[in-house]
Amino acid sequence: MPLRLLPLLVCLATFTACTAQQDKSPKEEISTNEASSPYTFKTPSPDGTGKYYMGREISHVMGHLAANWLERPEREREENVSQAIENMDIQPDERIADIGAGSGYYTFRMARKVPQGKVFAVDIQPEMLDILNERIEREDIENVAPIQGSETSPNLEANSVDLVTMVDVYHELSHPREMMQDIVTALRPGGRFVLLEYRMEDSTVPIKRLHKLSEAQAVREMASVGLRLQENIDNLPWQHCMVFVKE
User: Fold this and answer.
1) pTM of the model
2) Three-state SS string across 58-118, please?
3) Which of 14, 214, 219, 221 is most buried, judging by how many CB atoms fall within 10 Å of its CB?
4) CA–CA distance from 61 to each of 192, 216, 223, 227, 237 (Å)?
5) Which residues touch 183 (CB under 8 Å, ≥6 apart)?
């Protein structure tokens, strides 16, 4: 073979290898990616994202335009928020993270319980953080600190909080595994995670199905990140009040 043909053959072999790699079908690529992911994808239901975690379809997020609904006057009567906060057994010097704090409906009520502590109000929407900051400045509140979270992390320091709360937020998390792993890291030894979610088991609760969560599903998902159900306090009109502890 003439030596001048060797470079051409090398280039041809390289091109063929690259083409074969590019011809890998999208289906194969998706399968490869999903094999290492805790999530699966299907056609979305009317209220869902089509993204599934441990058999549960993740719902769409309620945006900042619904902030007024969070502050509705009838919320105390419908959800007995005062009782829910009592259920958390908050101590005066505790550091609390309110994940998905929104307009701060729970945040500022919990802040009154920790005069020597602090509440970190975590949200991924800048508009919600603006609402929080405006109230902090207006009322000169010193023990609430808004934090910009992400879809995968609350951006809290390790071993920095005694209590983490999520109120009707968990079912909307786009990356629940990653978020909960970071939350467990942020909890101090013996720390508590209080999860409030509308009861899937109760058909009379007037909330869309994908915005509800069953106790069995919650226990399964929390166990996967090292949280154990200590108690499900059954004294709220519509919601589970599940207290998990860090193993």
Assistant:
1) 0.84
2) EECCCCHHHHHHHCCCCHHHHHCHHHHHHHCCCCCCCEEEEECCCCCHHHHHHHCCCCCCE
3) 221
4) 25, 23, 24, 24, 23
5) 97, 99, 154, 156, 164, 193, 225
Q: How many domains does the chain have?
A: 2
- In the structure encoding, which two tokens stand for residue 115, read together? 């005069």
Sequential pLDDT tens for the chain (247 residues): 443 433 333 333 333 333 333 333 333 333 335 558 999 999 999 889 999 999 999 999 876 555 676 778 899 999 999 999 999 999 999 999 999 999 999 999 999 999 999 999 999 999 999 999 999 999 999 999 999 999 999 999 999 999 999 999 999 999 999 999 999 999 999 999 999 999 999 999 999 999 999 999 999 999 999 999 999 999 999 999 999 999 8
Residues 64 and 53 in one domain: no
Range of the domain at 216: 60-246
For 206, what's the count of Cα atoms within 13 Å in the CB-facing half-sphere?
Answer: 2
Same domain, 209 and 224: yes
Amino acid in position 49: T
Two structure tokens written together for 227: 């949280």
